[in-house]
């Protein structure tokens, strides 16, 4: 099932953004075969890795000519291959894009790195926090006192995995008309910089400062942020538009005229302190009863234990339980070619002959 049914993709086993891209593509129906080292890749020692769900895994010794030959047999039958090694590693293994595309000219070859395939930092080690730091993104996040990374959601997964997936699918679509594949260079620094387009634009025109917690979207504004409630739990407010702000004032009892000048930046800090006191007057559930489902632009800040049980998430089945592990369901949704989980991460280890047999010949 899924809109990508029929696509054959080879994933060279890695960590972080590569496996997430493989999960996304397999969630949407692609037949993704993960090529792993003998004994497997398990950096964190997790017995059940959700990022590996939905696809078959074969173990191949890439240091042996026979192992490389087996991967090239997969390449002959594949629509795409993607890898997440440092630049030059696949070439040294004998599996670089020139070799693979000589075997299969329609092959789309995706390359996931932090810094890109070239540039002064291309061969240096790095992690998500470093990539988002270099793009200017990290400087905008955190408290006024220090930058704080948004775990690895921005760089690894949004700036990396998603851009790799879009790049692969775009090149696959183009190959349908040209008859030729190409190489996709998906650098996390490039993707993260691209995601910052609006913020860079706002800064150019003077609507964004370099001070954290001083801007409308980084909790500098009193009408866009998180607030602690009487029970120690938190809520989120995003009442930007005038009509939504007016409703916030109504629901929270903010009748004082000092709240009139919503967009006066000089008033944001004192009004924010006023709201801190207002929201501490009631428990989170009391604020939910007043505001949830209205146009205030409100939501409780749920823990990961609470989120799957929330009525909205439960009705939409945003989270599913598979193998007794709660995990996000495939996204987005399709009206006709519904995406579904075919199997969990520990069900997919097979012999490479099984894959070659099922893929047949191109």
Question: What would the keywords be for this entry?
Answer:
362 residues; Rossmann fold; three-stranded antiparallel beta sheet; formyl-coa transferase, domain 3; 14% strand; alpha/beta; six-stranded parallel beta sheet; 2 domains
Written description of the protein model:
The chain has 362 residues and is α/β, with parallel strands linked by helices. It folds into two domains: 8-196 and 335-359, Crotonobetainyl-coa:carnitine coa-transferase, domain 1 (Rossmann fold, 3-Layer(aba) Sandwich); 224-309, formyl-coa transferase, domain 3 (2-Layer Sandwich), CATH 3.30.1540. 37% of the residues lie in helices and 14% in strands. The chain has helices at 17-27, 65-77, 89-93, 97-103, 128-134, 153-178, 188-195, 197-204, 242-252, 265-279, 284-291, 311-316, 352-359; strands at residues 8-12, 31-36, 56-59, 80-83, 108-113, 183-187, 224-228, 234-238, 298-301, 319-322, 325-328. A hairpin with a 5-residue loop joins strand 7 (224-228) and strand 8 (234-238).
């Amino acid at each position: 099932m899924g809109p990508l049914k029929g696509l054959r993709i080879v994933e060279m086993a890695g960590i972080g953004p590569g496996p997430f891209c493989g999960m996304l593509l397999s969630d949407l129906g692609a037949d993704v075969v993960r090529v792993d080292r003998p004994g497997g890749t398990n950096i964190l020692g997790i017995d059940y890795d959700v990022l590996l769900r939905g696809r078959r895994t074969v173990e191949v010794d890439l240091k042996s000519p026979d192992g490389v030959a087996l991967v090239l047999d997969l390449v002959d039958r594949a629509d795409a291959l993607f890898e997440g090694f440092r630049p030059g590693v696949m070439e040294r293994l004998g599996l670089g894009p020139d070799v693979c595309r000589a075997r299969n000219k329609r092959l789309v070859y995706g390359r996931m790195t932090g810094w890109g395939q070239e540039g002064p930092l291309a061969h240096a080690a790095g992690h998500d926090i470093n990539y988002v730091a270099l793009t200017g993104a990290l400087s905008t996040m955190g408290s006024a006192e220090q930058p704080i990374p948004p775990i690895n959601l921005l760089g690894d997964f949004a700036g990396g995995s998603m851009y790799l997936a879009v790049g692969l699918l775009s090149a696959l679509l183009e190959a349908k008309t040209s008859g030729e594949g190409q190489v996709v260079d998906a650098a996390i620094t490039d993707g993260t910089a691209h995601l910052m387009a609006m913020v860079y634009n706002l800064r150019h025109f003077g609507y964004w400062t370099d001070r954290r917690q001083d801007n409308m979207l980084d909790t500098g504004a009193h009408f866009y942020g998180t607030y602690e409630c009487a029970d120690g739990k938190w809520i989120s407010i995003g009442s930007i538009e005038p009509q939504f702000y007016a409703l916030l004032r109504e629901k929270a009892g903010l009748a004082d005229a000092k709240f009139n000048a919503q967009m006066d930046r000089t008033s944001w800090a004192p009004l924010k302190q006023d709201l801190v006191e207002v929201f501490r007057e009631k428990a989170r559930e009391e604020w939910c009863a007043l505001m949830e489902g209205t146009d205030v632009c409100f939501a409780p800040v749920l823990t990961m234990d609470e989120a799957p049980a929330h009525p909205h998430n439960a009705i939409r089945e945003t989270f599913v339980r598979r193998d007794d592990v709660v995990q996000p369901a495939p996204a987005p949704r399709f009206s006709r070619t519904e995406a579904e989980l075919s199997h969990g991460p520990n069900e997919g280890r097979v012999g490479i002959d099984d894959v070659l047999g099922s893929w047949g010949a191109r």
